[in-house]
Amino acid sequence: MILIKSQKPKIFCIGHNKTGTTTIESVLKDFGYAMGNQVKGDIFLDVWYKIKYYLMQLNINVNKDIDTKLLNV
Hints:
mainly alpha
C-alpha cells in the first residue's frame, strides 16, 4: 500500500441550504482542493445509521465498540 501525505489540510464545510456551502466548494476547487462526493456520502450516512440502530438492538455499545475500531483508536 502506498500512502501519500497531502500538503493541504482537510477542510469540512457543513451547513444548511443557502448558507454559502456551494460557494465555498467552488472557491476550494479553484485553490486545488479535492471535493468529496456528497451523494455517496449521504447514502453512506444513511446506511451507517441503519447499521448502528440494528447493533443497538443487539445491545452492542455502538459508539465505543464499533466507532473506535473503525477509527483505529
